[in-house]
Design a protein that fits this description.
The protein has 430 residues and is α/β, with parallel strands linked by helices. It has 3 domains: 123 residues, NAD(P)-binding Rossmann-like Domain (Rossmann fold, 3-Layer(aba) Sandwich), CATH 3.40.50.720; 189 residues, Dihydrodipicolinate Reductase, domain 2 (2-Layer Sandwich), CATH 3.30.360; 70 residues, no CATH class. It is 34% helix and 23% strand. The structure holds nicotinamide-adenine-dinucleotide. Nicotinamide-adenine-dinucleotide (NAD) binds next to helix 1.
């Protein structure tokens, strides 16, 4: 296969995971030829890692576009609220994209991106990494082979672990829908609404209802006398959510917490961390963090063919993970992603006698686990493997998620948020 050329726009956590494929694939398949990021540390770090020429490192997207650098695709891994602006500029400049989810935060922008991509004839893949994870990919194959018949019901949940939830959604960069453009459902579970649509491929979502609230991480639950920041709080030694404990004693989520300090994370000293937590969002009281997103939400969906789906997400759980239970006309599938296996139950009516068979399908050996790719059940590496082949014109895997494929999953999220806020059932327009 020829070596493809790509540019990275947004050289943060996700962007570098995808572009590391240029160094980690079995054979050289990808070369990163340009990096764009206004954050100097990220720009320098990524440019050096990928061996990008100095003149092809940009702090401004317009400068990159003006230079008309030839690329097979651009990875747009900027933050949620920047996707619309950056994607539209790149589409209008004629670049194919690997675009991070969520595509954008509202329906008008979503459809504008879809229209612009069609007009310009550019190809866009959306990073729904779970479609590539062997767990879901194998489930999709089992459904396609007709082993559970037609889907009647889909139950799913996602539990977000305490420290991930605190760092990202209570204190961190996704803690406010107003600032980030994404609520909890869009930022965390647009993967799950996408899976609901992909696995139930025969029919389109029609009606959505949703409940949810922010009820745990609110001021009234703060212990008496709690201060604005944890460092001088009288409860810092006993509070389950103390930032001093998570960030100084355990240093969990270091890559995110210390990232904006203006120097490589590994060079930040303990004293600098202590100072940072005295005034930065990551040091705030979890009950008074200024965030506005929900900490629990349920979503119900009815499809045109009458099949139904429910999704429950909860933030701040003891154990992080995703669970799925599908009921079909001829069988069922049930399992936890993290267990790397699922149960397949099949119904048989042989000679007028009803029987069930059960097998456990182990997918652990299908995961390419190269440390950083272990996340998302092996989906990160598999996404890049499939995407490179897609842009090289070598065919489409079943997991390939083009912009159009991701629209319904996003529409479910927008409808669910409308339902949660208005208390009404929302119909998805065709
Ligand atoms: N697919 C997944 O499973 C998954 C998982 C986590 C996050 N995400 C999504 O990935 C995206 C990136 O998240 P992250 O954690 O890597 O964020 P990040 O903050 O680590 O990286 C974003 C980078 O974009 C840069 N940037 C800002 N404005 C820019 C511009 N105009 N042009 C170029 N670069 C710009 C920032 O300086 C930063 O370095 C988000 O949309 C997030 O929701 C997806």
């Amino acid at each position: 296969m020829k070596v493809l050329k790509a540019a990275l726009v947004g050289a943060g956590n996700r962007g570098q995971i995808y572009c590391d494929y240029s160094m980690d694939s079995e054979e050289k398949e990808l070369e990163i030829v340009a990096v764009v990021d206004p954050f100097k540390v990220a720009l320098e770090q990524a440019s050096e890692k990928y061996g990008v020429k100095k003149e092809n490192g940009f702090s401004d997207l317009d400068e990159f576009i003006a230079k008309k650098i030839e690329c097979d695709f651009v990875v747009d891994a900027t933050m949620d609220e920047q996707h619309y602006e950056t994607a539209m500029k790149l589409i209008n400049a004629g670049y194919n994209l690997i675009l991070e989810k969520p595509i954008t935060g509202n329906k008008d922008e979503l459809l504008a991106i879809e229209r612009a991509a069609k007009e310009k004839g550019v190809k866009i893949l959306v990073c729904h990494v779970l479609r590539y994870a062997p767990f879901y990919r194998t489930i999709k194959n089992v459904i396609n082979e007709g082993k559970i018949g037609k889907i009647i019901s889909m139950e799913m949940n996602e539990h977000v672990g305490k420290y991930h939830f605190l760092d990202s959604y209570v204190r961190g960069k996704w803690n406010s829908e107003a600032r980030c453009g994404s609520g909890f459902l869009l930022a965390k579970c647009c993967h799950d609404t996408d899976l609901i649509c992909w696995l139930n491929g025969e029919s389109a979502p029609e009606k959505v209802s949703s409940f949810g609230s922010r009820s745990l991480f609110v001021s009234k639950n703060a212990p008496e006398g709690a201060t604005e920041y944890c460092y001088n709080c009288p409860h810092t030694k006993t509070c389950m959510y103390s930032a001093q404990k998570t960030h100084l004693e355990q240093d969990l989520m270091a890559f995110q917490t210390w990232r904006d300090m203006g120097k490589p994370v590994e060079t930040v000293t303990k004293e600098e961390k202590e100072e940072w937590l005295k005034h930065n969002t990551y040091g705030k009281c979890a009950y008074n963090s200024g965030g506005d997103i929900v900490d629990r939400q349920s979503v119900s969906v009815e499809f045109e063919n009458g099949s139904i789906a429910t999704l429950t997400m909860v933030g701040g759980c003891s154990k992080a993970g995703r669970w799925i239970h599908l009921v079909g006309t001829e069988g069922e599938i049930e399992g936890f992603v993290e267990e790397k296996k699922f149960r397949l139950i099949r119904f048989h009516w042989d000679d007028g006698k009803y029987e069930e068979s059960e097998e456990t399908i182990d997918i652990s050996k299908l995961i390419v686990d190269k440390g950083k790719y272990g996340g998302h059940g092996g989906g990160d590496y598999a996404l890049m493997y499939d995407a490179v082949r897609f842009f090289a014109g070598e065919g489409e895997s079943a997991s390939i998620t083009k912009l159009d494929d991701s629209i319904n999953g996003h529409l479910i999220v927008y409808a669910a948020e409308e339902s949660r806020k208005t208390g009404k059932i929302v119909e998805i327009e065709k």
